[in-house]
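Notebook B, p. 112. Complex prediction, attempt 2.
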Amino acid sequence: DGGITQSPKYLFRKEGQNVTLSCEQNLNHDAMYWYRQDPGQGLRLIYYSQIVNDFQKGDIAEGYSVSREKKESFPLTVTSAQKNPTAFYLCASSTTTGRSYGYTFGSGTRLTVV
Amino acid sequence: SQQGEEDPQALSIQEGENATMNCSYKTSINNLQWYRQNSGRGLVHLILIRSNEREKHSGRLRVTLDTSKKSSSLLITASRAADTASYFCATDYTGANNLFFGTGTRLTVIP
């Protein structure tokens, strides 16, 4: 079955530590996205990529980094510069013109600072 | 911010009743989409309405779009307990490279 897989489901980060969230899709989608969701709130865009080896900052990119070396993979690193990283992180993908067909989302990673 | 606004923020109804939630947005759009999110899960695409459409149906879902008022509504008819979830609108603004999601409506359907 085609889909988008996020791992791990739960992640704990110590102060000053970098952590990487994985996002893999086998839908042959060109575009991939990372969103952050805080409790009771909507989704805010962190980064997005429309093609391999290219990505763009979203509304809240500070303290985060991404790479897009393969079409299938779009990992997100939460760096120590992100002062309030506790949140639910969602990865999504779409065809290049897929905003006209909707996004496919992963099941999310819940990150907690300990 | 281009983030849309939804109301109500929370809605509680009895099973079998209809649920209506609204979304307002900021500027001209190519299309507007509705998504559902169960607690602690990812979002699932429900329905898309294009800017030149006024109404669209899918099963128990009915979506309307009023571009003059920059608003949309999602109606869920004959609600079921399994419809309990958060519902988000997402706008594909003209000239943008990604969708902008609203703040969501938390729907609770009481059996």
